[in-house]
Specification:
This protein has four helices and ten strands, in the order βαααβββββαββββ. With 191 residues, the protein is of the alpha+beta class.
Length: 191
């Protein structure tokens, strides 16, 4: 198996990555439509050390490690669960996903899962949480396709956490993560 760390071995060049993906017949012409991301998004992930590519049995596999955090808030009137409502891309596309966690964050190579969880909640919800608000549930391992990059098999390793918010962190209107290419909207659901 050959492990490709694009951020170290390539010229950070979009054309080089396009050519590399084409060598493995990855259908990149379909990327950037519907629910999928673009080759530029994959290049950004590689440069940010959020994923890797490996050549296995004449095929190409994307590997990511992530944290998935289920966020709850307990109030006098009941328990609430935070969920992703939608993503609105700058190009007008809207993507709705049925996510198993409130917040999912790709880890950087070598990053501790607890640290990644705290970082993910800060980046996506704008909240500073304490490590004591998080409890680890289990680790997940699976291989499969990717809505973000159709045709590119992805190997996933995940760490599942539960987070309970404190009253000063709870916003009844939910939260919005603003990125350079999209906005992600999070809403509360009463359980």
């Amino acid at each position: 198996m050959k492990w490709i760390k694009l951020f170290e071995e390539f010229d950070h060049d979009l054309d080089s990555l396009n050519n590399y993906l084409n060598q493995f017949s990855i259908p990149i012409d379909n990327w950037g439509n519907g629910k999928s991301k673009t080759v530029k998004h994959l290049l950004d992930e590689l440069e940010n050390k959020e994923c890797g590519l490996s050549e296995v049995d004449a095929g190409l596999i994307r590997s990511i490690e992530f944290v998935g955090i289920k966020v709850f808030y307990d109030s006098k009137d009941g328990r609430y669960y935070l969920k992703e409502d939608r993503q609105e891309f700058n190009d007008g596309r809207i993507r709705r996903r049925n996510m198993p966690s409130s917040v999912s964050e790709k880890m950087k190579f070598g990053e501790d899962p607890l640290v990644a969880s705290i970082r993910g909640i800060k980046e996506e919800l704008g909240l500073d949480i304490k490590s004591t608000q998080l409890s680890k549930r289990r680790d997940l391992f699976y291989n499969g396709g990717s809505l973000s990059y159709p045709g590119l098999t992805t190997k996933y390793k995940g760490h599942q956490y539960i987070c309970n918010l404190e009253s000063h962190q709870f916003d009844t209107n939910g939260y919005i993560e603003i990125q350079k290419d999209k906005k992600t909207f999070f809403i509360w659901e009463k359980l």
